[in-house]
Amino acid sequence: MKELAVISGKGGTGKTSLVASFAALAEKKVLADCDVDAADLHLVLSPDVKREEVFHGGKKFAIVQEKCSRCGKCLSLCRLDAIRENRSEEGEVKKVRIDAISCEGCGVCAYFCPVEAIESFRGEAGKWFISDTRHGPMVHARLGIAQQNSGKLVTVVRTQARQLAEEKALDFVIIDGPAGIGCPVIASITGTDLVLVVTEPTLSGRHDLERAAALAGHFGIQVVVCINKFDLNPQIAVQTREWCWRNGIVVVGEIPYDPVFTQAQLRAKSVVEHAPGPTSKAVEMTWLRVRDLLQQHQAATELPAQRRDRAGCSPRALPVKPPPPVASPGRREEGL
Amino acid sequence: MKIAIASGKGGTGKTTVATNLARLMSLSRHDACYVDCDVEAPNGHIFLRPEICDARSVAIPVPRVDADKCTGCGDCGDICQFSAIVCIKEKVLTFPELCHGCGGCSLVCPTGAITEAPREIGVVEVGKSDGLSFVHGRLNVGEPMAPPLIREVKESLPPGAETIIDAPPGTSCPVIESVKGADYVVLVTEPTPFGLNDLKLAVEMTRQLGVPFGIVINRANVGDDRVKEYASSGGISVLLEIPEDRRLAEAYSRGQLALDLGPQYAQKFALLWEKVLHDALCGTEKTIHIV
Asked: Domains along chain B?
């Protein structure tokens, strides 16, 4: 079973549109929508939800007003600027409260509160789902509004997808990743066999491609690239191809800018389902190249399972087995 | 005033709106500032080409354990909510990339065995682009957490500046950190199912933050009317519609501002600015800050 993560660095390059078509083309796979705070794949795949679970995320803390002595100790300790004091006109502290949006759940305030007036709570931070679609099973999620721990929810989606693939003896997990290179993206790619970076021929796209590719390299994962909307700026498309070649990165596809992508989306279809033609053909060729690479791929290093699970903002609740010592990180180098 | 440009969906045109608005403002005022809070994938500098005059490294304080003083009591592992420091069989191990820098472990250690050492997560750069102040951050590749760097980026704003904040895509903690404290939010969307879906999430997020907002519909003629219907039934102000324009897309690809294409874009962004000012100062929506 092989795992493919589709990321981009820059948003809007066409990850989800491409994954939707891969869903239609690939056989024996599970889809995993890891863009948990702005999930869109379900809009094309129309999932029939079979299982729904609550995601609890990390702890947050709140002050029990009846116990609070308004001493201000919590304010002096909080490094996240999450403690708020309401003062009277004369400057007297009338109320101390924790801003739930700024609170990162470190618990330092609660630990040191002299009157034990601060309690933790674990609300519903989101939901995750296992669904059937016309193209096979899909694991997806929705992070609650203004919630943290997106990396942890991504890890839940990944773990469920992997489990499903193993149970059903499927060949692939195809991961629709988020934009950026931070914790939800890291949680989307760690332990995968191949990272596909979808880029566009713009200076912004180039800049972010280099960062996304460097991220995959940082985790020792092979990278391939698809240049979407390549005819928007053929010169930059060529420069992108040359950059890939110089860095030993295979370009698995070049897809033209085509209104069929939007037309297909409006009809809740993937491009290959909606409009067979040269653009569809280019998408199909991209999938075939990716599939061949996945099938040939030998995992060079297998990350230990516990290190995979703690990618991202892991809260205390995750089981911690004795892990290997982590070397002190040095300065990260950008680019390859 | 601080105006944040956010979206939900990536690639809708936040940076296009933010950079052009900031440049336009700088033509008529000396205190305009553009700040790029998309520290994972910053792009504003491509369009504004600032001259950087100051760059500094940003670090999170992470625990450093003196093994000679450590008694293996495990109090540090007990207080840590992020599994960044764990005590197993009286031996302490640290995972610096998971550390949120809260300082709890060093405070709680009974023997003073834990001190804090700075761990670099990225850089903040400050500069000027033809009279427009410029600030951005760049997260080191491999670092999971953007919010601490975003906080430092916002701390580096020139005081009292009229600021345009270019936020990252999505609706989770990096966006919250970028948009928090703004006076008004412009949500940039596109009239497609993905655009509408993510706009709704972004609207919920902005309402939870209690900041008034309006929307800009980019590539306004490519999809359908559902975004406009959503806006009108929700009483949400549509500040501007920008039709799809191949020339604009090509200019964007070259790192060129829309303003350079001709007066029609200067007019559009001037109109946007007027409406934003009007809505921000008068307030279009009553919002409740949920704590």
From this structure: 2-31+160-282 (3.40.50.300), 60-120 (3.30.70.20)
